Amino acid sequence: MKTREHKAEILAHKRIDERVQLMTLAFPAPCAVPGQFVMVKAGVGGDPLLRRPISIHRRTKTGIELLYEVVGQGTALLAALRPGAEVSIIGPLGNGFPLVAAKGRTPVLVGGGMGAAPLVFLAEHLTAAASIKQPVALLGAHTKKGLLCVKAFRTAGCRVITATDDGSCGRRGFVSCLLKELLESTARENAVIYSCGPRPMLNSIYELADTAGVAAYVSLEAHMACGIGACLGCTVATTAGNKRVCKDGPVFAAQEILWGQADEN
Amino acid sequence: MKTDLSVRIGSLHLKNPVMVASGTFGYAEEFKDFLDLRQLGAVVTKTVTLKPRSGNPSPRTCETPSGMLNSIGLENPGLEVFLKTKLPFAAKLGIPLIVSIASESDPQEFVELACRLERVKSVSALELNISCPNVKHAGAATALISQDPAATKAVVRSVRKVSTKTIITKLSPNVTDIVPIAQAAQAGGSDAIALINTLTGMCIDVRRRRSRIAMPVGGLSGPAVRPVAVRMVWEVYRKIKIPIIGMGGIIDTFSALEFLIAGAAAISVGTANFVDPAVSGRIIAGLKEYALENKIASVRSLTGSIVKPCVQPKK
Ligand SMILES: Cc1cc2nc3c(=O)[nH]c(=O)nc-3n(C[C@H](O)[C@H](O)[C@H](O)COP(=O)(O)OP(=O)(O)OC[C@H]3O[C@@H](n4cnc5c(N)ncnc54)[C@H](O)[C@@H]3O)c2cc1C
Ligand SMILES: Cc1cc2nc3c(=O)[nH]c(=O)nc-3n(C[C@H](O)[C@H](O)[C@H](O)COP(=O)(O)O)c2cc1C
Ligand code: FES
Fold first, then answer.
1. What are phi and psi of A30, to 5 degrees?
2. What is the residue with the minimal CA distance to atom 53 of ligand 1?
3. What is the domain range of residue A159?
């Protein structure tokens, strides 16, 4: 399937909490894989100008779901749209999580904040596949309210463990502490890590995985102007030189990334 | 009725006046799913330097009112890798291929690049990027070559001496008067002028009191710069003889027409490619439709066709 611009109708649009929205788009994307994203145009015309990158949260028979947080002008405009309205999207874009890495292993999904969004699609994919053990989902957020998709991961068949910075739900502390414990147990033997979240969190996940000798894949974020590999606005320093998060990623093997030189944002 | 969309830039025959701007279209391959690339008037590749450049720190882009700031910093794989891995795709399209080149510190690098490219048959023209705001020229009197008429003329002349290809000189809008710079490029032997590169700008995250991009200053592009670009094309058109390739905020047929009417012989689509990767194809169709509707036999007759203002500018 060629990647093109699509006008997709909003089938449903739900408010999850004050800041988080769930948008269902009539965009059947049978080829889409977990970890891919779409570039969404918020509003029409030149202001805001650029598209916004949003991960595919789930795929259904009739379309895709986007789970997004309202943080600025673009996402606020999206949030105001009603079912029946059309949005222009380009996608699916980028490379998803390598699923073969999970063969015969226990996938450990580590999501921080909004980073949980694309991992639900991944969880549903993994639990549907044969020869993959029950995935463990480690979810972290600042507070209980920020913990997203706990139910969705359970429904998908994952074992879910949570952590919050303030201890309002699950373990008090960072989600990386949960991973550390897991990797200190026997679970380490056959684990493979898939993670999405803020850059500092991904950095500590890489360090833990590296110490334990476990393969880890991370989905990175970067400010994107085009999303299709043309502007070089989104590059990240890797062991093989600069790579484009949009086209060569957003999922990378964690050991490929030169973490020290990572984006400070 | 038939309408003729073709234009000439130096020795290039463009089947229509719609090109894509350097740095906004990658190496063309990135756009192959989105439109039939062979319909474009010409393709301009991302600026290449002799040696590889890894570019500036992230974040490199941010959105601004009706535009964007970028500080890519001319990231490119260097000439050798460019020739081996990037150029072949665009070379096979069968449309004029324009390679944008830049020096990093010594203007002599332009000559070296031009010499190497002289032997590459698939390259129809060179665009001299003497106007990138994201690289600094050590030791120069001005930050950019294109801010100094004498330096502009010298660089163009040195490339002219070694190149038989069409030479396009791309100028910066970050000057008090664009006309003498364009005249200097013409005097140096340039076949055409490309106007405009990005305008320098800043954008501050007030909460953190920090620049939104990693560099303090970046280059502004998109619809926000269009009036400045159209004005510069108009000013230059009346003072030089060589054709102008106009760009800056073109997003549709009407914004493309603005540039032609102001004096551009051809136009380039830049930032709009990011928002709508197929937009240049639609502008080509739109220009044709406009010409037919208005019984314009040749798009060339639009160039500089602005109706004389009631109040004549002095001088
Ligand atoms: C591959 C990828 C997948 C993403 N998936 C999701 C998702 O599933 N759910 C979700 O809520 N968010 C996701 N994001 C982040 C999302 O793109 C930004 O929150 C959104 O662009 C903010 O737009 P705005 O206009 O509301 O905010 P503003 O701050 O007004 O945006 C201004 C500019 O900054 C950019 N920007 C702002 N924040 C970010 C950010 N964190 N990452 C990249 N660019 C940013 C915007 O795209 C825009 O160009 C993803 C980002 C990337 C790169
Ligand atoms: C992300 C980005 C990268 C660019 N890179 C280059 C470049 O490598 N060489 C160059 O001559 N111009 C470069 N430009 C400038 C454009 O070619 C063009 O002159 C400018 O953006 C104005 O046109 P626009 O408003 O249509 O984008 C770049 C612009 C952007 C936005
Ligand atoms: S966002 Fe343009 S290259 Fe990745």
1. -60, -25
2. A221
3. 99-219
**Contact (CB, 8 A) for A54 and A91:** no
Q: How many domains does chain B have?
A: 1
Q: What is the pLDDT of residues B192-226, one digit of tens each?
A: 999 999 999 999 999 999 999 999 999 999 999 99
DSSP H helices in B130-200: 149-162, 179-188
Cα torsion A81, A83, A89, A92 to 10°: value is 130
Tell whether A103 and A44 lie within a shared domain.
no
With beta carbons less than 8 A apart as the criterion, state whether B19 and B272 touch: no
Q: Are A59 and A29 in contact (CB under 8 A)?
A: yes
Q: How far apart are CA A228 and CA B297, in angstroms?
A: 37
| Any domain includes A265 | no
Ligand 1 site, CB within 6 A: A 37, 50, 52-55, 67-69, 71-75, 114, 117, 221-224, 250; B 62-63
Could you say which ligand is closest to the alpha carbon of residue B283? 2
| Residues making up chain A, counted from first to last | 265
With beta carbons under 8 A apart, name residues in chain B contacting A48: 63
Within this chain, do residues A211 and A103 fall inside the same structural domain, yes or no?
A: yes
Rounded-to-integer distance, Cα A78 and Cα A84, Å: 13
Residue that has been written with the tokens 């910093």 in this structure: B73
Whether A76 and A133 share a structural domain: no
Q: Which amino acid is at B179?
A: V
| Closest listed residue to residue A113, CA positions, set A224, A17, A210 | A17
Residue B82 maps to a domain: yes
Whether the pTM exceeds 0.90: the reply is yes
What residue type is assigned to position B269 of the chain?
A: V
Bridge-based pairing state of the strands B61-64 and B42-48 = unpaired
CA distance B161 to B154: 11
CATH number of the domain at B43, please.
3.20.20.70
Q: Is A227 in the pocket of ligand 3 (CB under 6 A)?
A: yes
Residues in chain A with CB shorter than 8 Å from the CB of B66 are: 46-47, 49
Question: What ipTM is given for this predicted complex?
Answer: 0.93
Which one of A37, A41, A52 would you pick to mutate in the ligand 1 pocket, going by the greatest count of ligand atoms within 8 A of its CB?
Answer: A52
Query: Which CATH number does the domain housing residue A39 bear?
Result: 2.40.30.10
Q: pLDDT, tens digit, for every residue of B262-313?
A: 999 999 999 999 999 999 999 999 999 999 999 999 999 999 999 986 666 6
Pairing assessment for the beta strands A215-219 and A251-253 based on DSSP bridges: antiparallel
